[in-house]
Amino acid sequence: MHTDPSIVTASHATTSRATASHATTGEPAHSHAPRLNRRRLLKLALVALPCLLLASLLGLWLALHRIPAWYRPAVVEEAVLPGVRADAARLVDSISDQMVRGRRFTLELRQEEMNELMSSMGRIWPDALKDWPPALQQPALSFDADGLRVGVTLMRSEDRAVISAALSVSVAEDRSTLHAQLISVHAGALPVPAFLIDSAAQPYLGRMGDASDRSRRLRSWGLQGADAPSARALMDQGVRLPNRFTWPNGEREFRILSMEFHPGVARIEIEPL
Hints:
By secondary structure, the protein is an alpha+beta fold. It has one domain. The chain starts with a helix and ends with a strand.
């Protein structure tokens, strides 16, 4: 059986025209996939970005209000206050007696007792805290092998956050100076930049009097100039203080021979001069 060539040619032509017509009237179905994927990604981003922003703000808020594990300010009830006052008086009398004897002795400071004293300071010696910023409350310290940590609760309206600092203090080999260095400052779990520390310290420095009076006080601490070292300087190289002090009871001069820090306790060897 023979096929008419004219029929084959016509059929092929018809198929070609149909293909060409489909090509000109629209794209294949699979070409819409990238466009649809882009739309889905855009919708997902519009939903995810606010969620990520909210999660970030929540994370910052939680980090700012995190309480360090070591920060445990003492709560001293009125009934306990006479005992704390008596312990403080015994400590002062003991140091005074050792100074009078003129022999080396070791002063042992226990973290728990120091926190009780710090918490009671305003009630035992009110004048000692007359320049203390009222927004800073509940002071506490912690001794560990690396030095000491100090912290306070910063009160702002109804909000509060724990501001803490880690410090190292050591005696020079020739015992002529003490070296104090600020290791870090945190608000909750967030590190505080040095410029914010300097800005926060300015009002306190302003309450120390005019420039000449402030310079005199800073020199009495072993610092030179009318202004205290910047926080960045305290963090980078620290400050060196003359290792010569005067005990007010009897005006007896002394120096520190060594300082040791252990978990919960600090031992300071003192030599009367």
